[in-house]
């Protein structure tokens, strides 16, 4: 007989499961955490190596000469930018044309769901300017992109200058097999999203843009440049993109190979590489780098202009020039040579980068762990859920008379159902109240002044998150959530009877849409409450007040909101820029609003995931906790 | 007295010389081959395999310099490096860094190019089974007095050579192709050189006579590339062929270097891999085989004032002139193949002597075809003896 079909053996296994459940879970948890921490230990990592044969083992000789001229162009760009107060479109078009590129512009405009935190604007309008360098002998089937953002103020002027200098140098070479597109985008990510949508003829985020007049074939790789000083001491590579997506590891390997060849100091996550991996501080440095990468991926926002390319399966990275207090400075010519070398190597590609890993964590630029090594840690944490579920299932199945009670009770759940729903509902209301109470306290930083308008906007966002994301390409999770929500709201009739009492609860007054949002949340909870009706029998065991208070406290600490607050502080610590509590609080609020904004603008999935999955599950725990 | 002595000395000297020249005349035809062919194949495509094309082109250049004309060279290049978009010097293929030597030039005749370089085409060239529409430049029109040089380069492994990144030729196939060539008397002696990783595995299975093989590395070893050019950005040559080219640059049409010198090219210290060779199937002593027997097309010319008597054998025939009418063979064309009779035949073919009765249409057709083939070849051989070439 098989292991599970033999009743004796099964009973023995089940006995083991129920007896040792808690210890096994604890062991699994500690093993998972220890595994993850151990990943940063250098003997467990692999050295990075170039996997793509076409990018080859041989280096090319870089001959870019014109760094100083590039800086002068950058200064000119800065002057024109200040004069026009935005993007100097005409000057850029004229300069690119004089360098022999085919120049095109694209206008775009976007209405933000709520005003931006630091610029307090509703409508964002801008122009992207891009020039295409056609490959002299090749057909126009493939392209590479070099982009530099046009930011207001004194940032990134040298990046644009270097971009134009490289354009002039590249134009004189005959060995290009792909078109090279030099892009200067306005308003950072919004402009980049408009350009990418125009290039690929998709419209996922509801932006308004003029169609692109010139195209270059399918884009094989892209680099975004951020350079704000004439000399740099190190170059930082930013890999994390939208929804935590990463480019192919070969792009990072290419960057590192050229850094080593040219002798430029290169970093990732802003942290310098250390050689003493066997000391405690060296190991903690590696752990910090890896944790930073994991947290940046978890935030789901693109950490550079390159982040939006990844959705289109274009390998992209951002190179940031950092000027800190070190003796050895690298000038613009050397940075230009590094980029020239990278582009010559990318030119040799015959297919998209696919030989190396797509999922990895880097503890430094020369060491990485792939998904096969870090997934078991999360697997161990997932096993805990499985064990708990099995334990519950076994306990549910064991006493026969109780199941009848459970069935009967489920039908009568409507009357205790009101009580069970009120508690989480009160919490929901407090959460919304938190949103509404915030503006008077922090008006200049987070939201615009009118609380009523903001609540509407926030709820609009929630709704938009729910059903507006339905037309987003590739947002399957949010789509499912979005489509499910109105369906559930419509399908349950009992909800109407429960809600009349809610009117006075809403701070903003009787706004129909707000009620709709709340109703949607309530009905979901109702359904969840139905399902866990049979579970209450189990939780009645843990009904002693002090234990309940302790559980409630733990639940508050582990709430999504508190976890986010702690992680904000932790993130700042990891970056070696610790903040005071008030600054941290401001940062926390901006993180929340930025998350909502990211979802609305680029289709980031973190906000809908938290709002529709994590948050209701957490509310359900309250339901379980306070069941009578 | 002195004059007499001098005259006698001169007479003996002259007679000795004439004897020497007669001996030398014997040495004229010592190698047994009368024409030279070369089949040079590069099997890899893509820009990063630049060095394989450069390898093949440098051997082509040497072979042409030593006298083999383009009509006797079948050059197969799987990709066009000279006009590749990534080539910073278009229309050139360099074999030495700093662009010292352009092996592409403007008199290169590529016979099989690009996607035409396949295993099937290569084997068809070797065995001669090409469709009638194939032009002469794409055929290996060798005969039983031809010495053929076959040079292969590309990516290989244990027992195979990769063609075009999509198919392979195995060592068994290659050995069988050479056996077919031997059976059809398509070569006198054959020199096989291969420059790939684990190249020695390719000649392990040869079993036909008069084959000599060289490889750049043993089984389990990789053949390495020689030097990159930083302006072009690729490796330009493989080590073995680089040193082979250096060796061949010293060979001129009259040089007497033999195969033993060729075996010493690129020792392990230079090549990192261990070159290997195989001579057990070669009927002559490798020391007596000259480099120019395979790499060049050498016509030996010696100017002499003496008369060499080459007519001795013919005198004997003259004595039998009277009986010639009786011994003379009359030649005529073989009967046309009676196709219609064959198709409508139901049982064994009565025309084929000693044929095996086979069931089925194919069996009926095969014996008469066989019979036809043999009569044709016998006819050819008979006529060829009339015209020394």
What attributes characterize this protein structure?
heterodimer, A: alpha/beta, three-stranded antiparallel β-sheet, 21 helices, 12 strands, B: Rossmann fold, 2 domains, seven-stranded mixed β-sheet, globular, disordered C terminus, glycoprotein (chain A), endoplasmic reticulum (chain A), transmembrane helix (chain A)
Secondary-structure map:
The complex is a heterodimer of chains A (628) and B (389).
Chain A: H1 7-19, H2 21-38, E1 46-47, H3 67-84, H4 89-98, E2 102-111, E3 123-133, E4 142-150, H5 157-171, E5 179-186, H6 188-200, E6 208-209, E7 218-226, E8 234-238, H7 249-262, E9 266-268, H8 280-299, E10 315-322, H9 332-347, E11 360-364, E12 367-370, H10 371-397, H11 400-411, H12 414-441, H13 451-467, H14 476-491, H15 494-498, H16 512-531, H17 536-539, H18 545-557, H19 560-574, H20 581-602, H21 606-625
Chain B: H1 2-28, E1 35-42, H2 50-65, E2 73-77, E3 112-113, H3 119-127, E4 146-153, E5 155-157, E6 160-163, E7 167-170, H4 171-183, E8 189-195, E9 211-215, E10 228-229, E11 234-235, H5 239-249, H6 259-263, H7 268-271, E12 276-278, H8 292-295, H9 312-319, H10 324-327, H11 339-344, H12 361-384
Parallel strand pairs in B: 1-2, 1-4, 2-3, 4-8, 8-9
Antiparallel strand pairs in B: 5-6, 6-7, 9-12, 10-11
Helix pairs in contact in B: 2-5
Summarize the structure.
The complex is a heterodimer of chains A (628) and B (389). With 628 residues, chain A is an alpha/beta fold.
